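ingest -> validate -> predict -> emit
validate: passed (alphabet ok, no gaps, 459 aa)
predict: started
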Amino acid sequence: MLTVALWLMPAVASGLPAEVGLDAFETRTWTEADGLPHPQVNSITQTADGFLWLATPAGLVRFDGAEMRVFDRSKHPDLISDHVTAVEAGGNESYLWVGSRDGGLAHFDGWGFQVYFQPGSPGQPWTVTRLFEDTSGVLWVATQERLLRLEPGRAALGRGLPGKGVATLYEDHHGYLLVAAGRSLFRRVHSAFSSVNLPLHAPETPIHAVVMAPDGALLLGRDDGLARLTGSFEKAGLPQTFEPVPGFEDTRPRLLHRDRDDVLWMVAEGGDLTRLLASGADALTPMPGGEILSLHEDLEGTLWLGSSLGLVRLRDPEAGLPQPEPQIDSLEAGLAPMRPRGRLELPPGSEPITLRFTAAAVNAGGPIRFRHRLEGLDDAWRETGERSVTYASLPAGEYRFRLQAAYGEGDWGEGAVELSFVRPRALTWLVIVGVAAVLAGLALAVAMVRRGRMGLSSD
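emit:
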């Protein structure tokens, strides 16, 4: 244990309790053998439906706890690049933002991608290094040269902080955006950026990470170690104090995170993960999964680490599990996949009919069971361990597909996801074909009459 200041507060009822050493926590690593298209995980986020999204050099990955589903140009040609560098879950109507190398920014709505172009350079390749959506809904897009912004409801990117390569984006507990760029630190207050002036005695060195401590001080991860900055940042003038944190002068922090229970986490250069507490600090060494490149806390308080060798989960084995959230991915009518939204009307000759589904259960410790029922055909629920069901032939009529999921031998719960669809009656299509034939015959008859009249008039 290292001795640190009292502002490093212990966890209270945390998903990763402070009284338990890090070595007691369950760690698991997912690699290419588990379905990752590339071992390197550049960025991690989680959408409101519970799925984890991973940025890799070989595509975007959705992880449900059991399966890795890859989104790349072979399946989604509207993507410009497979080298995904950053992902950020969106709020309101935005589902997921995706940044890539030489492919810029794209928005994913769960079914397809919309690409955004860099201001002043439409169609030119550009690289996104960081993505961050603030609490007001503004998306901040960092490139190697500048910081851009996308306002809610806008279709085009605007300029944010030009001429700066951004290392990190962080929104403090007052709602102010902090941007570390090179050796400079900027703060956005009342829609304007201003520089946070460091004391003259503070060494000039690059800033890589920023986080607010529970007492309101800023912690800076710099090349010369971890530093503590205090003062009235909203007002003009120098901060009150700048001091290195004892015991961390040579750690070269690259990532800093404050979790929901005010526990601080640090990833140093080389990949070690350290938990900072009032009583000291404990590190997880050697860290499984290679060098840590990204860190994300999920909706249940579990820490996920993206590394050079895969995806790592750090979890309390005694923590409870929420009910898994089932989701219908698609309905395939014949060979045509249809988005499972609203009430679907299937085209004629659409057989077989396949429904593909999954469940968001990223903290599951075992297999997920499913049961489904097609109202209009099934009299009872059908249980399965598979993630799809195919109906070779369905009579005409209206159907409602219902799906539930559960852990192991656990309860099914009360809720179910549903999808309604219609198989049109064959007679309906026969009538349509008959009407079309009658109309075609009438059109032919009219044409023949007109041709006859033209012949008489010429005589």
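Residues 1-15, 427-431 have pLDDT under 50 and may be disordered.
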